[in-house]
Amino acid sequence: MDATPDPVAVRDTVQTGLDAGELVTVFGRCRVEYDGRASSTLGPGDRLLVLKPDGTALVHTDEGHQPVNWQPPGCEHEVRLSDGTLRIHSSRTTPEETLDVCFETVTAVNRYAVTDDSELSVSGTEADLRERVLESPSLVESGFEPRATERETAAGAIDIYGVDERGNAVVVELKRRRVGPDAVGQLDRYVTALRRESHDETTVRGLLVAPSVTDRASELLADRGLEFVALEPHS
Amino acid sequence: MDATPDPVAVRDTVQTGLDAGELVTVFGRCRVEYDGRASSTLGPGDRLLVLKPDGTALVHTDEGHQPVNWQPPGCEHEVRLSDGTLRIHSSRTTPEETLDVCFETVTAVNRYAVTDDSELSVSGTEADLRERVLESPSLVESGFEPRATERETAAGAIDIYGVDERGNAVVVELKRRRVGPDAVGQLDRYVTALRRESHDETTVRGLLVAPSVTDRASELLADRGLEFVALEPHS
DNA sequence: GCCTAGGTCCCGTAT
DNA sequence: ATACGGGGCCTAGGC
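Structure tokens for the assembled complex are given below, as produced in the milestone run.
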């Protein structure tokens, strides 16, 4: 279905594909309206609409990683033909959100029978960094002993909780990449919470473990008496 | 090109489309390898590969808003045929990253000539919330007077800086949606920085303006002597 | 180029 | 259902 297809055939192809649990794409000149957490309007242009069997809708232009408009998984797609123009209406609740794509012209419609049993395996994540530290705690500092991961505080969970060679409590916040001010704020919240929950005699140190740190984050660390340790997620 | 196409024709179609500045999609059974800021492997499965004229690559499965693998804009796409199988290699520098998609089978290849002159118009953003406050400062509190937006401090830019009816300095941090602990940390950084940069006599208040706030964030606000004002980005 | 913060962020996990 | 933090986040705007 590639050259100026008949509108009825287009609608039927999309509907049949969706009913069959296939992935359906529509390419053509369209307008897009979105309303929900925010709202948006997009004037006419050529775009690729991707409708997935899980209820995802993606509107892709010629540029950018991000779809210009979208609907997350779990939506219901409705296909209509009004005055000979194809309209796709995709909606969900909690939150209430609607996406409307109205095609002036349809250049192509395609149905794809998709099966995918493989799972993506990623390395270089924060989890890898955590394993590295747990297996070789001295990478953080000599004498460091991890005691818990995901230890809960009033401010949230500490990535790694442990003690240093002098017996001080240590809060470790891990980041897989260069850290900015936000990570310092996070570490500070955990350290402050743990100090409040500890006996007064206990010293609580805060360590930000990441490949590198920005200047401003470094200043913030110094201000709050926190420390930085350079460490990559991979060996 | 829809039914079990000839490998050479597939390669030529993809290459010709890319050369022509078109958007090209390839659907089929493939494996994907990524290496760069992290690295990943994905076993065989049916996916839709989208190659954009700006150098973006997207690998979409049957599920999810997010592509399972991708390459951001600015990459170079290379198309090869080795042992009769189609291989797409997409790479960039700074950071050095590569994406390899190897097709066992190709079900369909499509070329789309895309032009899109329209710009997306969005409302309900943080910018809208800012305009609302600047036009009606009393929505924040009676007597509030905005004096600057994006006022710089050592910790970063304050969304709205102003004074209250008593002449105290006021730091306003805006969020378009319900706020959590991270927003409190952000506001706290700005308030602390401004206090340091001000004369000691000056009182600096911190206001988090957002539709709502989580319990933990509310506690953090209280701890740090900061305040919350409920306000939606739209009227 | 890096830094900073916003986003209809999405997404998984825990509560 | 909400909350919280990670992400190869991406993207825009400054410097």
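The first strand of chain B starts at residue 23 and ends at 35. The two ends of chain B are 51 Å apart (CA to CA). Further analysis is deferred to the final report.
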